[in-house]
Amino acid sequence: MSISVIVPATDAAPGLDRCLAALAVSEGVEHELVVVRDQDLRTPAAARNAGAVRASGDLLIFVDADVVVQRDALALLVGALDRDPGLAAVFGAYDDRPAGCGVASGFRFLLHHAVHVAGAGEAETFWSGLGAVRRSAFERVGGFDPQRRWLEDVDLGLRLRARGERILLDPRAQGTHLKELTVGGMLRSDAFERALPWTELLLEHRSGAGALNLGARHRLQAALAVAAAGGLVLGRPRVSLAALAGFAATDVPLIRLVARVRGRREAALAVPLHVAHHLAGATGLAAGLVRSARQTPPR
């Protein structure tokens, strides 16, 4: 297969130089590099589509401008597709060494890493931060939806799966995320850039309800987070403490990961940050349901 790597860089991308430098020394894969800088393209989805049009490869690999791929990441993605001709797409994960110095960055990208490691195998969605898709499959579904500002890669994956295409998550293919998050920025993103549009996608596609961080354990954690908050609001501290204890028990693997990588101080903050993450998700879910109900015409 001929291979094209597409990097959307239509806004200020301070990590772009590091991203391109890492791609230049990738091992085992010869590839064409397409960097999309056209600022008239209004969404990342439109930029990726424009890159696909310019690219000549049979295989399209999408890499975000703030991701530094590991040397073997591209080879792992290509190898998976080489070994399995029936596979339409494959994507990787953030590594366990996020570059951000803040507590929020460490927590959020380690959570992403943990979710993708746990979800290895056949997948229902796609991730364009570090993901490869056969051009033929990409074109059959019309590429990314250029009108979507958020989760256009999840939408692409759901449309691929609806056509019977297979997608693989291989978390061995990794990249370092360079973005620096604040707690407030993380929670706004979790609510309104992830949970809200994901709710709308689930209602639209009627599929993907068990994908990655929508699995059973994550749903249980969301319920416990809401119970903990509800106990505080209703003046039932014992309910809150019991819910938090249950939450912490389900969060031991993540706590250990954060402790190993970021130290005990940040590990101690992992549970309250994770609870806040789920509460933000519940807020986005509610907002998505309300907005969908308002847009649904009465029968």
Automatic annotation (TrEMBL):
<keyword id="KW-0472">Membrane</keyword>
<keyword id="KW-1003">Cell membrane</keyword>
<keyword id="KW-0808">Transferase</keyword>
<dbReference type="GO" id="GO:0005886">
    <property type="term" value="C:plasma membrane"/>
</dbReference>
<dbReference type="InterPro" id="IPR001173">
    <property type="entry name" value="Glyco_trans_2-like"/>
</dbReference>
<keyword id="KW-0328">Glycosyltransferase</keyword>
<dbReference type="GO" id="GO:0016757">
    <property type="term" value="F:glycosyltransferase activity"/>
</dbReference>
<protein>
    <submittedName>
        <fullName>Unannotated protein</fullName>
    </submittedName>
</protein>
<dbReference type="InterPro" id="IPR029044">
    <property type="entry name" value="Nucleotide-diphossugar_trans"/>
</dbReference>
<dbReference type="Pfam" id="PF00535">
    <property type="entry name" value="Glycos_transf_2"/>
</dbReference>
<feature type="domain" description="Glycosyltransferase 2-like">
    <location>
        <begin position="35"/>
        <end position="139"/>
    </location>
</feature>
